[in-house]
Amino acid sequence: MTIEASQAVVEDDAAASITVKHWIGGEFVDSARTGTSISPATGKKIGTFADADTATGQAAIDAAARAFAETSWKIDAMVRATALSHLADAYDARIGEVADTLCRENGKLAGEAAFEAHFIPRALRFAAGLAVQPHGRATDTLPGQQAISIRQAVGVAGLIAPWNSPAYLSIRALAPALAAGCAVVLKLPHQAAQSGALLSEIFASVPEFPAGIVNVVIESGSDVAQLLVSSPQVPVVSYTGSTATGRIIARNAAENFKRVGLELGGKTPHLVFADADIDVAVGTAVASSVVFAGQFCMTGSRILVQREIAEEYIQKLAGALSSIKAGPASDPESQIGPMIDTGSVARVDRLVEEAVAAGAEVIVRGGPSDDPALAGGAFYLPALLKVTDGTLPIVQEETFGPVQTVQIFDTEEEAIALANDSKYGLSASIWSRDIDRPMRVSRRLDAGLISINSWANLSIEFEEGGYKASGLGRLGGSASIEDFLEYKQITQNYIPQPH
């Protein structure tokens, strides 16, 4: 792990002894090099991790390939369903540990960590159902001739998960890949090393998973990720992360005509119409900025508010954001946790400064916390900027921090145009008490998830993904299994036919 030169590593005695290893071929494996895990809330050392290189990644791929070839995993749907169901039970039994690890390593507040963790058993049980769902077809194509179409697992799946919600986002990709019958290599970044170790322990506790079907590798760099993308042994890659990296993955994966599923960046707008419940809309807009310290692909970073209520809405939003209390998960009064590291704090603050210099009006400046009690932590208070120029980078580019912009519109048509004026299309929120307007506007927004009078209102049982530069493919829902299955047509003449 790279640490800012000015940031001394101080051990957190309660957690510094945690040592994380890779999980490959059913065994915990060390690496020649190691790294240090740092608490985002304190800047202190919370453990060490084995740091993978290309050889580690290749060992994981080889283990997955052997397990796929030599076990019955790919052809025994009932075993897969049972394994996933038992895995859900195992997660239920350790769900508190999952949340605690997210608080310690990821900086999430207790409620945020519990919210992330609660999705996991539900996603696994849904995937257990997908495993035994019939995906084939059969018909007589001619008298005496039948044709069947079957679905088979593509092979080894390379899954590249992010650090911002590592517990759930790992499972979101793992569950459908395993339901399909794939063997997997999960690559996690070093900021999620301890979440990866706990995931490995929980998988290891479920005997229905053959050794090597699931392999977990931790790295501080990108050697393993690049290997997963380039290796001909890995026919499918699922990546969640930035649009810039997703573009590189898609380009490099094309060399081997590899399947790629991508959930990428977002720039979620709140469309707040004059007939909205202002207090509820404001409260949710605040949450959409401070949850996960704004490090969420669906952070509500763009506020579009109708002119008739703009003054009242902005005043209430500014007051609410100004009163937000930063702090660690250990403080029950904390309303925003830390960013992942101090480098992220500096990056976001620089983007705000550049926006102000370019003409954005400061409503709430926010910025790095100056609370002495939080010294050493990566805390950033929420910012709110009013803009009239929608081309500013602060409006167009993903900030990945607790920063919101406000733009004012007059008509429904203008609101739709402003919302769609983005290269991203992951999600959007519509605020209106009109019974028809939200459904009418929803159909015209270029976004994969529309939340009406709510925000990021995800359902595991339905597909999740983005339009435009927010990605390719879908995770969640029945379609989540599609990337991991191949079609095969088989025909048979059951009455001899002359040729």
UniProtKB/TrEMBL annotation:
Domain of life: Bacteria
Entry-linked InterPro entries: Ald_DH/histidinol_DH, Ald_DH_C, Ald_DH_N, Aldehyde_DH_dom
Keyword Lipid biosynthesis (UniProt): no
Cited Pfam families: Aldedh
Entry keyword set: Oxidoreductase
Domain Aldehyde dehydrogenase: 31-490
GO molecular function annotations of the record: oxidoreductase activity, acting on the aldehyde or oxo group of donors, NAD or NADP as acceptor
Entry-linked PANTHER family: ALDEHYDE DEHYDROGENASE-RELATED
Protein name: Aldehyde dehydrogenase
Organism this protein belongs to: Subtercola lobariae
